[in-house]
Structure formats: C-alpha cells, structure tokens
Amino acid sequence: MRLILPSPAKINLSLWVKGKRPDGYHELVTVMHTVNLFDVLSFLPSDRLVLSVRGNNSLPLDRSNLIIKACRLFKEKTGINPKVSIKLTKRIPVGAGLGGGSSNAAATLKGLNTIYGNPLSEEELHELAAKLGSDVPFFLKGGLAIAYGRGEKLKFFSPANFEILLVFPGFPCSTAEVYQNLPSIKREVAVEDAERLIISPLINENFSELIDNMENDLEKSESPCVKEVLRVKEKLKEIGLKPLMSGSGSCVFAIIKGEKPDTTPLKKEGWWFKFLSAV
Ligand SMILES: C[C@@](CO)(OP(=O)(O)O)[C@H](O)COP(=O)(O)OP(=O)(O)OC[C@H]1O[C@@H](n2ccc(N)nc2=O)[C@H](O)[C@@H]1O
Ligand SMILES: Nc1ncnc2c1ncn2[C@@H]1O[C@H](COP(=O)(O)OP(=O)(O)O)[C@@H](O)[C@H]1O
Predict the structure, then answer these.
(1) What is this model's ipTM?
(2) Residue whose CA is at the smallest distance from ligand 2 atom 21
(3) Which stretches of the chain drop beneath a pLDDT of 50?
(4) Tens digit of each residue's pLDDT (9 = 90 or more) over 4-48
C-alpha cells in the first residue's frame, strides 16, 4: 500500500540567541510557523530501502540524506528494517532556512511509524527527531510553536492566519557556518516574551505590532552568506516591505498586510519568490 505525506516548509517569525551552551549549540528562543510550500514523500513497499528524488539533482541519496538518517534511527530504535521505496518530490529550496531537510526527516519518522503499526510513542518519535536536528521535532506536528533550548523544546499554539512573500535568492546558507560566525550574543528573552511580542499580536492580527517586534539575531552573523542575504533584505525594503531572514537563511520573507507589493524588482534580480499562506 502506498503512503503519501506532505512535508511543509517553515519560517521563523523571530529568533533570539541567549548564549552558547557547553555542548556547542546555541540556547535560543524562536517562533516557527509552517507555510503552504511542500515537499512530498511517497512510501511504497520494496525488497530494500531505496530513496529517489525528483526536483533536485544535488541532494545526496546516501546516509547523509536526512531521510536515510531517519530510517536508520527508526531501525536502531525498533529493530524494524524499513523495506520501503521512498520517493521525494523536492520543492522547498535547499539550505534556505525553511527546514526542508528537517521536515523531510520528520515526515519519514511519521511515515515509517504508520507503515509498521505505530511501534513508537509520541515521546519516542520526539526523542528520535531531536537526534536528527534541532528543528526536526517541530515538524512532527507543525503549525505554530515557540521552540527553545537548542530548538527541540516546543510550546504549540493554534495555527494562525497570515500571508507572506517568500524570496529565495538562489544560493544556500550553511546553518553550521552561520552559527559558527555568530558574535557572542546574550539576549534576555524567555518563552513568555515570545508569547507577548509575537504570538499575541499574531493571533490578534495586529500585524503592524507583530512586524515591529520581529527580529532574527542570526542576521548578526559574520558569515559571507548572511552579508549577501542582508542585500536581499534591502531590496525588499525598497518595495515597502519589512523583511526578515528565516532561520539561518538564505530565504527572506515579509508579512503581507492587505495589497500585494510590486514584485518587478525581484524579477529583475532573477530571484525565486512566492506569495504563501500560513498552514
Ligand atoms: C543527526 C546528525 C547529527 O548527529 O547527523 P550526523 O552527525 O550523523 O551527520 C545531524 O547532522 C544533525 O546535526 P545537527 O548539527 O544537530 O543539526 P542542526 O540541529 O540542524 O544544527 C546544525 C548546526 O547548527 C548549529 N546550531 C544549531 C542549532 C542551535 N540551537 N545552535 C547551533 O549552534 C550547530 O553548529 C549545529 O551543528
Ligand atoms: N532530504 C533533504 N532535504 C534537504 N536538505 C537535506 C536533505 N537531506 C540532507 N540535507 C542537507 O541538509 C542541509 C540543510 O538543508 P535544509 O533543511 O534544506 O536547509 P535549512 O536547514 O537551511 O532549512 C543541506 O546541506 C542539505 O544538503
């Protein structure tokens, strides 16, 4: 029997860095929302584990692919050797701060658990997801959440309604490199602050207040990639938007209030862009 699962992208409505942890990760508070830009994973029974990808010919198909990593973790935990052919239709730009790989990993854990009769509890799925990456646990449920710790601790809220313009400038940013080039930042931000500054205006659709409160400390990274992303931000400001880098980049997005802006300057730059909705 074939199982087909959507694998959504996310944006970070804000990301604050509290400091560097002994384990080398950064302590952070961030607000994430999934948007209607999806990869699709299909699972078919097979005599062995096979991964194929459409829509992107540069993704690794070996154990460095987060889908394969998820399969290996599932096998280690359950003893079940996944005999499935997984077809990934890739639409989410890679290395774009949209969590595409993390989303695929979460969809794979959910897909395998469904196929093999739910051997793993929600807690066990979360435990495996947290090993695959800091924002993989969020994608087990998606929607709207405040993530904290290194990003694996979550407080979920009812999904909100808003539109964004998302711009991918055509180059990826490495999450590790962006963090490695981050100056020392010690923001005093707690989950409660994220609720007051972001969740509350979002739920009440006070978009002007929301936009004024949004910030992403990773924009302070000395990474050459982020310097390029800041140029993209300036171009969006020129068309009257108040943009923000998503996660570790390279995508930039802006909340759209009312009428859509003129996107001609973006076309002239040759950038990929889409008007999307929160899901
Ligand atoms: C499952 C893994 C790790 O065991 O595979 P392998 O090691 O087998 O390849 C994956 O790579 C999973 O690696 P991980 O590095 O945790 O992925 P992410 O959570 O996405 O973070 C990427 C990098 O960004 C930085 N990072 C990320 C989150 C955070 N709160 N602080 C950080 O400093 C770290 O340098 C981290 O290494
Ligand atoms: N299934 C996958 N989809 C996307 N990226 C993947 C996948 N498996 C491994 N990767 C690797 O994960 C890294 C980050 O991917 P992605 O999640 O798209 O970026 P970001 O973390 O910026 O949102 C890339 O180096 C990519 O090669």
Answers:
(1) 0.93
(2) 99
(3) none
(4) 999 999 999 999 999 999 999 999 999 999 999 999 999 999 999
In this prediction, residue 233 carries a pLDDT of 97
* Residue whose CA is at the smallest distance from ligand 1 atom 32: 25
Residues 108 and 203: their CA atoms lie apart, in Å, by: 31
Distances 116 to 41, 194, 245 between C-alpha atoms, Å: 16, 38, 39
> Which residues share a beta bridge with 44?
85
User: Which residues does ligand 1 sit against, CB inside 6 Å?
Assistant: 25-26, 28, 69, 131-134, 150-151, 175-176, 179
Ligand 1 center–CA 205 separation, angstroms: 34
pTM over 0.95: yes
Q: Which residues are catalytic?
A: 10, 135
Look at residues 116, 99, 203, 221 and name the one whose alpha carbon lies nearest to residue 151. 99
- Pick one of 3.30.565.10, 3.30.70.100, 3.30.230.10, 3.40.50.12780 as the CATH number of 3-157: 3.30.230.10
